TrEMBL record:
This enzyme's EC code(s): 1.1.1.44
InterPro entries named among the record's database cross-references: 6-PGluconate_DH-like_C_sf, 6PGD_dom2, 6PGDH_C, 6PGDH_Gnd/GntZ, 6PGDH_NADP-bd, 6PGdom_BS, NAD(P)-bd_dom_sf, Pgluconate_DH
Pathway membership: Carbohydrate degradation; pentose phosphate pathway; D-ribulose 5-phosphate from D-glucose 6-phosphate (oxidative stage): step 3/3
Catalytic function, reaction form: 6-phospho-D-gluconate + NADP(+) = D-ribulose 5-phosphate + CO2 + NADPH
Protein's recorded name: 6-phosphogluconate dehydrogenase, decarboxylating
UniProt family annotation: Belongs to the 6-phosphogluconate dehydrogenase family.
Species assigned in the record: Vibrio ezurae NBRC 102218
Class of the enzyme per the UniProt entry, highest EC level: oxidoreductase
The protein's assembly and partners: Homodimer.
Amino acid sequence: MKGDIGVVGLAVMGQNLILNMNDHGFKVVAHNRTAAKVDQFLEGPAKDTNIVGAYSLQEMVEKLETPRKVMLMVRAGDVVDSFIEQLIPLLDKGDIIIDGGNTNYPDTNRRVAYLREKGIHFIGTGVSGGEEGARFGPSIMPGGSPEAWEAVKPILQGISAKTDKGEPCCDWVGNDGAGHFVKMVHNGIEYGDMQLICEAYQFMQDGLGMSADDMQKVFADWNTTELDSYLVEITADILKYRDEDGAPLVDKILDTAGQKGTGKWTGINALDLGIPLTLISESVFSRCLSSMKDQRVAAEKLFGKTVQPVEGDQQEWVDALRQALLASKIISYAQGFMLMREASNQNGWDLNYGNVALMWRGGCIIRSAFLGNIRDAFENDAEIAFLGSDPYFKAILENCLGAWRKVAAKSLEVGIPMPCTTSALSFLDGYTTARLPANLLQAQRDYFGAHTYERLDRERGEFFHTNWTGTGGDTASTTYDV
Ligand code: NBP
């Protein structure tokens, strides 16, 4: 019997996805550039399974049922292009290549078009959930050549996570790079969620003087509220973990954050598309700032920086923090969905936002109860421009507003940096303000660069230039938006 799918790449993601496919009754042919890893896999985790090995791409392709499906689980970038070039002469028209790595979506756009010319279908799919997700059910976000979906659907939906109701956390996202775009936004949201949790942690630790044990109880408790999520749950676990000497391990970890680029790409896309994705962008910059450890240590000394203790009832502050975190999180998701809507409009992807929320409901790092409510919001109104306008989320934002302002103000007063929590509040304040000071800004632009302005007392689209100093000319600059 021939194989249902070939998987190239036997690192952590590839091996676990293959074992997951095997559990679901699919016959997998496994290949890796370094052949020794094929043997190690077959003699190790894949022993006594139906998984077969292949020591070359040719051998793998020969062992596959047609149309052949080859999934690449290798390092994103040139490595994917290199495998595609090697596979093209081995594959026939109608065969399918799937890239399951963390690829930047313009690369997927390019590869779909390139392979279409050769009659080969290409799917670029986000896979989230890390090692455990890959093994027992990840969130899978496929996009690319729609003709290929029916052929790969049973495998990808079969191995994906399922919601409580048994729905697969995997569905067709859209054409070209849509799947990788949605995965990129997922990772951006993950950056934001993590930073928000870290800000609440720092407020509790530095402002309220709470111990790791105290904070562990708080996060465990929050996980029984609307904040019920994987990231809050693992935060409680992390705070509980003790080093060999019995002290909390988290306190001994160097405070410089790593990053692999997906948060940065999300921010870059937001700037390109003109979407105010403030929270995720702040979370990326927070990681950048954290990595300037030596400079921070020197600057703390130079400025004699200290954090004033936060006075008042600790339990009240903890509850205010919970509300600030929840409200900020709503803003982050609202901004993320704004970004996806704009990308969908510009690329003609026709994204189904309720389905995106469903795909993130289980299996992935941002999985949470909250995503079920987001799905409901888009089912009620698929065109909702701002998630915070949905009645469920609007009520939460309104209820949390007082506590959120209190936390933001106190953090600024005592010197605890909370860039995501405070910028989310500023976003809501800006979004709900009918008249912003951009009238003055337009006047400044017109003053120094003859960039023109529109007037409140005239039709939109009519542009004016004023000779503000009496010495400028009457010639206006060309009007265009970037
Ligand atoms: P890695 O990203 O570490 O990639 C390892 C694989 O790439 C191995 O098969 C390795 O072959 C192959 N490879 C490399 Br590296 N350079 C190569 C080259 N020049 N030519 C041929 N093959 C090469 O593995 P991973 O962590 O399992 O991730 C796989 C993909 O999934 C990545 O795109 C990653 O971003 C994405 N992803 C990872 C996670 C996660 O939690 N780790 C989660 C979600 C998505 P070799 O054995 O011969 O060196």
